Amino acid sequence: MGPGPHSELADLSGADLARKLAAGELTSVELVQMSLDRIEAIDRDSTRAVIEINPDALDIARRRDAERRRGRVRSPLHGLPLLVKDNIDTGDRMLTTAGSLAMTGAPAARDAPLVARLRRAGAVLIGKTNLSEWANARSTRSSSGWSGRGRQTRNPHVLDRSPGGSSSGSGVAAAAGFAAITIGTETDGSIVSPASANGVVGLKPGVGVVSQRGIIPIAASQDAAGPMTRTVEDAAAVLAVIAEGHAGYRARLKGDALRGKRLGVLRQPFTGYSEHTDGCYETSLAALQDSGAVLVEVDFASIKELRESSVELTILLHELKAGLNQYLRGRRGLAVRTMADVMRWNKAHASEEMPYFRQEFFEQAQATRGLTSKKYVDARATALRLARTEGIDQLLRRHRLAALVAPSNAPAAALDVVDGEKRLGGSSQPSAVAGYPIVTVPAGAAFGLPLGLSFFAGAGSEGRLLGFAYAFEQATRARRPPEFLPTLTLP
Question: In the CATH scheme, what is the homologous superfamily, with its name and number, of domain 7-310+376-476?
Answer without folding.
Answer: Amidase signature (AS) domain (3.90.1300.10)
